């Protein structure tokens, strides 16, 4: 659905099934944008953000990246769209912006099938980019995290040991990161969290080792990817103090890890829940580097999908 018959990316819905060579091509393009390329391949084109859930990083990065590539950008959100009150469907919203001449949309939506529905409704000239849907997929976050790791280790992730810590059950970032880590060659991937947020069944569902003891899981890893505890998706929120005591990444725990361990978190971060201030703001933290890299990745994706 997202690839053309000759293997080019037409939409970006999931990283699942994409090739390593395609990801590396996107990273090479991102390198060019990160170096300050000022060309404007989206000049006089219209790009639309359609966000049915809140976002700071993803929506802003798509808007800023598209504008820096020369596009006009319009932001639709749930509070101002006709959808909710006037009952317009997602498909009709996509048809409407396609009729205005948009060349691409970034869509964030709570439903599992929403990106596929948007692709089915999209006109031939419009690319759909999944800005995060349900607990399924957040492909540009996965690419951003891969690009951040690649800055340190290059294109071969095969020797890396990676822990994904926290609310794996509800995390689209965890799923996109699992896809990207496997595509890039990582095999030692550990999912870590309390059983209610990281149940043993994920070992079968996601094909990675599941741990409930944080210190056992992370003591020898190269990368720790922390996940936000998603209060809005939890029926019963764990006590934050209990969560921090058992799963929070503190300076004391960081001191037990490899000296050059990379700490990633997609944001927004819950300080004092998943991570202490000193670790979030310390030298191992890649959190703001991920945000910076997210701009180059969005430019690479937008220029690839929306410039022709
Ligand atoms: N990482 C991420 O998706 O953040 P936002 O919700 O702010 O877009």
List the helices and strands and how they pair.
Blueprint: H1 20-34, E1 46-51, H2 57-68, E2 72-77, H3 83-86, H4 90-99, E3 102-109, H5 114-121, E4 127-133, H6 139-153, E5 161-165, H7 172-183, E6 188-192, H8 202-206, E7 209-211, H9 214-218, E8 223-226, H10 240-247, H11 251-254, E9 262-264, H12 277-280, H13 287-306
Parallel strand pairs: 1-2, 1-3, 3-4, 5-6, 5-8, 6-7, 8-9
The protein binds phosphoric acid mono(formamide)ester.
Fold and architecture overview:
It is a single chain. The chain has 308 residues and is of the alpha/beta class. It has 2 domains: 39-134, 3-Layer(aba) Sandwich (Rossmann fold); 140-289, Rossmann fold, CATH 3.40.50. It has 13 helices and 9 strands. It has helices at 20-34, 57-68, 83-86, 90-99, 114-121, 139-153, 172-183, 202-206, 214-218, 240-247, 251-254, 277-280, 287-306; strands spanning 46-51, 72-77, 102-109, 127-133, 161-165, 188-192, 209-211, 223-226, 262-264. It has a 5-stranded parallel sheet with strand order 7-6-5-8-9. A 4-stranded parallel sheet has the order 2-1-3-4, sandwiched between helices. It is globular, with a radius of gyration of 19 Å. It starts with 19 loop residues before the first helix and ends with a helix. Phosphoric acid mono(formamide)ester (CP) binds at residues 55-58, 132, 141, 266-268. Residues 55-58, 132, 141, 266-268 line the site of phosphoric acid mono(formamide)ester. Residues 10-151 form the Aspartate/ornithine carbamoyltransferase carbamoyl-P binding domain. Belongs to the aspartate/ornithine carbamoyltransferase superfamily. ATCase family.
């Amino acid at each position: 659905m997202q690839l053309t018959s000759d293997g080019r990316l037409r939409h970006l819905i999931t990283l699942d099934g994409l090739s390593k060579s395609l990801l590396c091509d996107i990273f090479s393009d991102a390198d060019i944008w990160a170096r300050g390329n000022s060309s404007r391949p989206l000049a006089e084109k219209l790009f639309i953000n359609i966000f049915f859930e809140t976002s700071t990083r993803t929506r802003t990065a798509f808007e800023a990246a598209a504008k820096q590539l020369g596009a006009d950008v319009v932001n639709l959100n749930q509070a101002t769209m006709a959808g909710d009150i006037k009952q317009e469907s997602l498909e009709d919203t996509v048809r409407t912006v396609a009729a205005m001449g948009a060349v691409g949309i970034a869509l964030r939506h709570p439903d599992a099938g929403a990106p596929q529905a948007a692709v089915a409704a999209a006109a031939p000239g419009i690319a759909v980019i999944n800005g995060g849907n349900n607990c399924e997929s957040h492909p540009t976050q996965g690419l951003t995290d891969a690009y951040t790791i690649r800055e340190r280790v290059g294109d071969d992730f095969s020797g890396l040991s990676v822990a994904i810590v926290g609310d794996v059950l509800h995390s689209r970032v965890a799923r996109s990161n699992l896809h990207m880590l496997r595509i890039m060659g990582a095999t030692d991937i550990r999912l870590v969290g309390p059983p209610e947020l990281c149940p043993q069944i994920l070992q079968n569902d996601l094909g990675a080792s599941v741990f409930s003891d944080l210190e056992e899981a992370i003591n020898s890893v190269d990368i720790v990817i922390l996940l936000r505890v998603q209060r809005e998706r939890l029926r019963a929120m764990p006590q934050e103090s209990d969560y921090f005591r058992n799963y929070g990444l503190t300076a004391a725990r960081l001191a037990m890890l490899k000296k050059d361990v990379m700490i990633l978190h997609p944001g927004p971060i819950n300080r004092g829940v998943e991570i202490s201030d000193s670790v979030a703001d310390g030298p191992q933290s890649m959190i703001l580097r991920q945000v910076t890299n997210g701009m180059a990745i969005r430019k690479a994706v937008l220029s690839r999908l929306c410039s022709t």
